[in-house]
Amino acid sequence: QVQLVESGGGLVQPGGSLRLSCAASGIAVSSYTMDWYRQAPGKQRELVARIIPSGSTNYADSVKGRFTISRDNAKNTVFLQMNSLKPEDTAVYYCNRYPPIYSWGQGTQVTVSS
Fold it and tell me: Looking at residue 1, what is its pLDDT?
């Protein structure tokens, strides 16, 4: 059974930073394209960052230059470093393989507010 468990969210002031973790079991994160998504209240889930097996990354324009996706193959974990956070980054953040063939997990809440 594949499990992807997100953690690391919380309440942070604008301009602050958080690092999210996606701990995987049942798959090797080094072997698949791994994505971070977010969903704000009343909005669709959107792709924010992607890392492919070669290590190349892609970002949504809204987060480019502020967020960094990475992985630790030994820990089988994908990370999302989030800097210069803005109120519009407030959302539940999810990780998944691409294609997203697995059920969406609980996600981790990120709230950016003063």
Answer: 87
Q: Which residues of 62-78 are buried (b: 16+ CB within 10 A; e: fewer)?
A: ebeeebbbebeeeebbb
Give the CA radius of gyration of the chain.
13
Beta strands in the chain (DSSP E): 3-7, 10-12, 18-25, 33-39, 46-51, 57-59, 67-72, 77-82, 91-98, 108-112
pLDDT along the chain (114 residues), means of 10: 95 98 95 97 96 98 98 97 98 95 91 96
Residues linked to residue 24 through DSSP beta bridges, in sequence order: 4
Three-state SS string over 51-76 comes to ECCCCCEEECCCCCCCEEEEEECCCC
